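SUBJECT: protein chain
CONTENTS: sequence, structure tokens:
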Amino acid sequence: MEYEKLRVWQDAFSLASQAYKAIGSCKDYSLKDQIRRSAVSVPSNIAEGEERETVKESVRFLYIAKGSCGELYTQLLLARNFGYLDETVSDSLLGKTKSVSKMIASLIKYRAGNVKEPDLLYQVDKK
């Protein structure tokens, strides 16, 4: 599996493991499930895109992974706000989530030529 060599996948995998464990004792099962699903979605979508073996498919799944980073970030903020995560743990996870999101954006830019247009529309296909 070549994607395992990508630093972005490695960092996303580590983030998912850490987030999964950090929220383990949370009794809010709905939020706990959402955090776990979005965290696991990030490295999973990177892997799925890489296994598709085309640049277009890879980029499509990188955008999905980036969206999952946004979900995870928001859910971690909520968990902290609700008192389910202490500030030190949440700050660490939030920082790692931002870092992974930036790495995904850089990989999208490298592969597709751009990440975000000024009008806030994501553009994958060059015409």
In short: The CA atoms of residues 42 and 83 lie 24 Å apart. The helical segments are 7-22, 29-52, 55-81, 87-112. Residues 117-127 have pLDDT under 50 and may be disordered.
